[in-house]
Design brief:
Elements (H helix, E strand, L loop, with lengths): L12 E7 L5 E6 L2 H5 L3 H6 L13 H7 L9 E8 L5 E13 L2 E10 H4 L5 H14 L3 E6 L4 E4 L27 H17 L3 E8 L5 E12 L5 E10 L1 H23 L3 E6 L4 E4 L2 H6 L20 H12 L4 E9 L5 E11 L4 E8 L1 H41 L10 E3 L2 E3 L7 H15 L3 E5 L3 H13 L3 E5 L2 H8 L6 E5 L7 H9 L9 E5 L4 H10 L3 E4 L4 H14 L5
Parallel strand pairs: 18-19, 18-20, 20-21, 21-22
Antiparallel strand pairs: 1-2, 1-5, 3-4, 4-5, 6-7, 6-10, 8-9, 9-10, 11-12, 11-15, 13-14, 14-15, 16-17
C-alpha cells in the first residue's frame, strides 16, 4: 500500500533538511521520495524539483510558518497538501523542527501520507462520535423502529417540541405524543411508504417550532436495514430551509413583477445574446412590428433589419460586449407587412448573464413630423432672409436719395447736444460736402465698432455699410450682450440703440460709464426719436452724441469720424 513499508507494514516518511537563514536551501533528502511524490531524490538535490513549489497555494501560511528562522521548542506538527508529479494532490502529516547547527538554522522536515498513519476507529469511539453528532448538529436527526417509536434523536429536535426539555424525554415516544395530530399524520404516512417501498423518500413541509414560529423544513427519511437486509426502522433528518423557501418565493414574485412590467410597457423590450440571437421580447414587438413572440425568439437580429443597418447594428453589439452603454442608437426594423420602422434604442450588457438588455421606441412618425417641420422652417427662413435683403436694399436706396436731395444735407459737425450744436442752418453743397464725407471715411477705415441693435433689418443695414467701408464690426442684440462682449475686449467706438429688450441702451451706457476701463470709449445713440428731451436723456445716460434714424450714411460716418478723431477726453 502506498506510504507503507512492504515488509514491516509501518508507514513510511520522507525526510528533508533545509538551511533557511538565506532562503530554503536543501541539504539532505531521504526516504521513498519517488514512490510518494513521483520525483526522484536527485531531482530535488539538483533543484529541478522544489518541495515548496509543490505545496498547495492555499497552504502558503503553513510554508511561511515552517520557514521562520527562530528555533522551535521541540518537534511541531502541521498538515500540508502536496501535488505529486502526476498533478495529484495528497494530504501529508508534517513533523518539523528548527534547530541551530554550525551557526545556521536548519529545518528538519518529515512528511507522512495522512492515509498511511490513520488508525481504525473502534466501536466505542464510533459511538462517541455519534453521540457528539446528535448533541451538536443543527439539523434534526432521529431514528425510529418499525413501530414508529423514536429510539434516538438529536438535541435539535427539542426546537420543534414543546412537551420536553431534554432529548431523553423523547425516546420511546411516537410523533402523536410530541407533535400536532395533522403534522404527526403526515410523518406517519411518509414512514409507511418508506417501510413498504424500502426506499428513500422526502418532502418539504411547513412546521411550527416550540415557540410558535412557522418554519419550512426539508424532511428526509430512508430505511434502516439489519445484517440480512431486512428493514428494521427509519433514519430521518430534517433541515430548516425557511430562508431558501422565502428567497425562492421572493425571486418568483420578482420574476412575475418583472414579466408584468416587461409585457405592460408600451416600448419594445428585448434580450439578446452576444451572437445577436433573440432570447426574449415583450408584447411591444407585436404592437410595433406585427410579429408574435414565437416568430422572433431564437431568430437573429440581422434577419429583421434593413440591409443597410445590419453591419452597423452588429458593431454596436460588439461595443456593448466591451461594456459601452448604448444611448439613442437608431436602426430600421422590418414590419411584418414589409415596410420599415425607425427604432431608437438604449441598451446595456450584463456580463454575469452574458446577455444584452435593450429598450426601444418607435420614432418613425415623430421623425417624419420633425422632417416636415424642418422643411417648413427652412421655407420660412428663406422667405425672411429674402425680405431682410429687400429691406436692406430699400434702406440703402432711401439713404442715397436723402443724401442727394436738394444739395442740403445736415452738417454732422453741428447738433443740439452740448458742444455739438444741433441742426445748423448752414448747408454743405455739392463737391465740398462729398469731399468732407470722403475725408471721414478715410479716417474711419480699420476702426473697431460695437453695434448694439436689436432690430434685424437695421442691424444688417449698418453692418453692410461698415463692411463696405472696411470697418471692423461686432454685433450685440441688447445691453446684456453688449456688456458681456465688453468684458472681454475693447472697441474704438460704440453705436448704441436706445430701446432694446432685457436691457435698453440708457442702462447699458450708464454701466459702461461706471467702468473706468471703458470711460474713454465714445458712445453714439441710434434713435428714431430726435426730439430735444430724447437727446437730453441720451446725454444724461453718458452717451456722447446721437445719429437719427432712418440712418443717413454721410451723417453716420461724419459723426463717427469726428468722435474717433478727437475722443471723449477732448470734450
Amino acid at each position: 500500500m502506498l506510504g507503507f513499508n512492504e515488509t514491516t507494514g509501518q508507514p513510511q516518511g520522507i525526510s528533508f533538511d533545509f538551511r533557511i537563514d538565506e532562503g530554503p536551501v536543501l541539504v539532505r533528502v531521504a526516504g521513498p521520495v519517488e514512490s510518494l511524490l513521483g520525483f526522484s531524490a536527485d531531482r530535488f538535490r539538483s533543484g529541478a524539483a522544489d518541495l515548496f513549489d509543490q505545496v498547495h497555494p492555499d497552504d502558503g501560511d503553513i510554508v511561511r510558518q515552517l520557514l521562520l528562522t527562530e528555533p522551535t521548542r521541540g518537534p511541531q506538527s502541521a498538515h500540508l497538501r502536496v501535488r505529486d508529479a502526476a498533478d495529484r494532490v495528497a494530504i501529508y502529516a508534517c513533523i518539523y523542527e528548527r534547530v541551530h547547527e554550525e551557526s545556521a538554522t536548519t529545518l528538519k522536515l518529515s512528511l507522512f501520507r495522512a492515509t498511511a498513519i490513520s488508525e481504525p476507529v473502534d466501536d466505542a469511539t464510533l459511538l462517541h462520535y455519534f453521540d457528539q453528532l446528535m448533541k451538536n448538529t443543527r439539523d434534526v436527526v432521529y431514528i425510529k423502529n418499525t413501530h414508529h417509536v423514536i429510539t434516538a434523536a438529536s438535541t435539535s429536535l427539542l426546537e420543534y417540541v414543546d412537551s420536553a426539555q431534554r432529548v431523553e424525554h423523547l425516546i420511546g415516544r411516537t410523533d402523536y405524543e410530541i407533535h400536532p395530530e395533522e403534522q404527526a399524520d403526515h410523518y406517519h404516512s411518509l414512514e409507511k411508504r418508506v417501510f413498504k417501498e424500502n426506499r428513500y423518500l422526502g418532502d418539504i413541509q411547513e412546521a411550527v417550532t416550540a415557540d410558535g414560529r412557522s418554519r419550512w423544513i426539508d424532511n428526509r427519511k430512508l430505511p434502516l436495514h439489519d445484517a440480512d437486509g431486512e428493514v428494521i426502522g427509519v433514519f430521518g433528518f430534517v433541515r430548516d430551509v425557511t430562508s431558501e423557501i422565502l428567497l425562492e418565493r421572493e425571486l418568483t414574485r420578482s420574476e412575475r413583477r418583472n414579466r408584468l412590467f416587461f409585457e405592460l410597457v408600451s416600448s419594445m423590450h428585448v434580450i439578446i445574446d452576444l451572437n445577436g440571437r433573440f432570447v426574449d421580447v415583450n408584447n411591444g414587438w407585436s404592437e410595433v412590428l406585427g410579429y408574435e413572440r414565437d416568430e422572433i425568439v431564437d431568430n437573429y437580429v440581422p434577419d429583421f433589419l434593413h440591409p443597410d443597418d445590419a453591419a452597423r447594428t452588429l458593431r454596436e453589439i460588439e461595443r456593448l460586449a466591451r461594456g459601452v452603454k448604448t444611448l439613442h442608437f437608431r436602426n430600421r426594423y422590418r414590419h411584418k407587412s414589409g415596410h420599415y420602422r425607425l427604432i431608437d434604442w438604449s441598451a446595456e450588457y450584463d456580463p454575469a448573464e452574458q446577455l444584452i438588455y435593450a429598450a426601444g421606441n418607435d420614432i418613425t412618425d415623430l421623425e417624419a413630423t420633425r422632417e416636415r417641420l424642418e422643411d417648413l422652417v427652412r421655407i420660412r427662413t428663406n422667405a425672411l432672409e429674402k425680405a431682410q435683403r429687400e429691406a436692406v436694399e430699400a434702406n440703402l436706396a432711401r439713404s442715397r436719395l436723402l443724401a442727394d436731395m436738394n444739395h442740403e444735407i445736415p452738417d454732422p459737425s453741428h447738433t443740439e447736444t452740448g458742444d455739438v450744436n444741433a441742426n445748423t442752418n448752414e448747408a454743405d453743397h455739392g463737391e465740398a460736402f462729398e469731399q468732407r464725407v470722403d475725408d471721414s471715411l478715410q479716417r474711419l477705415r480699420g476702426a473697431s465698432v460695437l453695434l448694439v441693435e436689436d432690430d434685424l433689418v437695421s442691424r444688417q443695414f449698418v453692418r453692410e455699410l461698415m463692411a463696405h467701408e472696411e470697418l471692423q464690426v461686432e454685433v450685440a442684440g441688447n445691453g446684456v450682450e453688449a456688456l458681456d462682449i465688453l468684458a472681454d475686449r475693447s472697441f474704438d467706438l460704440i453705436l448704441m440703440d436706445c430701446r432694446m429688450p432685457l436691457m435698453d441702451g440708457y442702462e447699458a451706457t450708464r454701466r459702461i460709464r461706471a467702468n473706468p476701463a471703458l470711460d474713454d470709449t465714445p458712445v453714439l445713440a441710434l434713435t428714431a426719436n430726435a426730439m430735444k428731451h430724447d437727446i437730453t436723456r441720451a446725454l444724461d445716460a453718458g452717451m456722447d452724441d446721437h445719429v437719427p434714424k432712418p440712418i443717413i450714411p454721410a451723417v453716420l460716418f461724419s459723426t463717427m469720424a469726428r468722435w474717433l478723431e478727437r475722443g471723449r477726453k477732448a470734450v
